[in-house]
Every structure is written in structure tokens, then in C-alpha cells.
Design goal:
By secondary structure, the protein is mainly beta. It has helices spanning about 5-10, 125-130, and strands at about 20-30, 35, 45, 45-60, 65-80, 85, 90-95, 100, 110, 135-140, 145-155, 175, 185.
């Protein structure tokens, strides 16, 4: 089956998971504590997502002028420890390596940059941009509602992956498998309002 179809019709429950990893699409809440700190805003959160964008004016057919402001993402970076997502079927350890975070409706908080950002992964894109570059910082905090889409596997006994630690020494029942395909977290916290 085509990859995008697998994701579209992915199970919406972790109950059916056997010993083999499968693509799931489940909703849960961030259970990780807000221990990471942003080098830009110094805010605390469970994880941070930074997007470098270039801002330009595009043609607006309604006014017949170049007054429509457009933002184009040129690079992004994710930072923080591996996340724990709590679902109704148990907790899932989400590895940050290769994680794709989508945050629909979060067009605010875009700030112009006059020097390279303090995030090493974004410096080359900033240097090569050739346009006025802005940055957007998105936070994932404890309790935020998210949708997890990606390969997930049930953890069995001593097979539990990662060295995730909390003050309660939480052991996740499931873990993501980014080696089998992209893992996405869709931030739904703005849709709760």
C-alpha cells in the first residue's frame, strides 16, 4: 500500500498493537515535564520547534497589488529530550531524532532576525537565505493535546527503549520507530480554545 494511504487509514487505537510495529494515528497529551529551556526566549517547555521563514509580498488578485504577506519555511529544528505522550491506552515514548512537528494555526510569534540564531542546525539556512529571515518558536508543554502519527511498537519487558526518566521513573508501554518512517506530532493545543 502507498505510504500516504497507510498513514491516512492508520488505526486510531493502540489496543490492536501486537509485537510488530504498525503505523498509528492516536491523540494524547504531552506527559513530559517542562525541563527544556529555549536559548532564544528562555521559556521552559517539554520541547521546542523553531522554524526559519522568509517573508515576502506576493500578488493579491483581489486588490491587484503585491500586498499579500507570505511566509515560506526554509529550515526547522526540534530540541528537547525525548517526549512522553500519554494516551488512553498507555504512554508512548517519542524520540526527538527525526521528529516532524506540525502546528496548524500558529502563524503568530514570528520575529525578524538580524544575526544567526543560537541554534546550530539553523545557521547554514540563515546564512544562505539571501532574504530577510525571521524565526518562529513553537513550544510543546506538559498537558498540550497532540496527535501522534507514525510507526509505534509495544514495549515488552526489558525491551523498553530509551532512557526516559521522570521524577516517577515512568516506563512507557509503547515507543515510536523513526527508523521505519517519519513520526509526526500535530500540536492540537490551539484547537482546544
Amino acid at each position: 500500500m502507498l505510504g500516504w494511504l497507510t498513514r491516512l487509514f492508520a488505526p486510531r487505537s493502540l489496543e490492536a498493537l501486537g509485537s510488530e510495529p504498525i503505523v498509528v494515528r492516536v491523540t494524547g497529551r504531552i506527559a513530559s515535564s517542562n525541563d527544556a529551556q529555549s536559548p532564544i526566549t528562555e521559556l521552559k517547555a517539554a520541547a521546542f520547534i523553531w522554524k526559519l521563514v522568509v517573508r515576502y509580498n506576493a500578488y493579491n488578485p483581489f486588490t491587484r497589488s503585491d500586498d499579500r504577506e507570505v511566509f515560506k519555511e526554509i529550515a526547522s529544528a526540534v530540541s528537547g529530550p525525548d517526549l512522553l505522550v500519554s494516551t488512553q491506552w498507555g504512554s508512548v515514548l517519542v524520540e526527538m531524532d527525526g521528529l516532524v512537528v506540525k502546528s496548524p494555526g500558529s502563524a503568530g510569534g514570528i520575529v525578524s532576525l538580524d544575526r544567526p540564531p543560537p541554534i546550530p542546525e539553523l545557521v547554514p539556512a540563515f546564512t544562505n537565505a539571501g532574504y530577510a529571515v525571521s524565526i518562529q518558536e513553537i513550544t510543546l508543554r506538559k498537558g498540550d493535546l497532540v496527535r501522534l502519527i507514525g510507526h509505534v511498537q509495544r514495549a515488552r519487558g526489558d525491551q523498553k527503549r530509551g532512557a526516559y526518566r521522570t521524577s516517577h521513573e515512568t516506563k512507557p508501554e509503547y515507543f515510536t520507530r523513526p527508523d521505519l518512517g517519519p513520526v509526526q506530532l500535530v500540536d492540537l493545543s490551539l484547537t482546544e480554545i
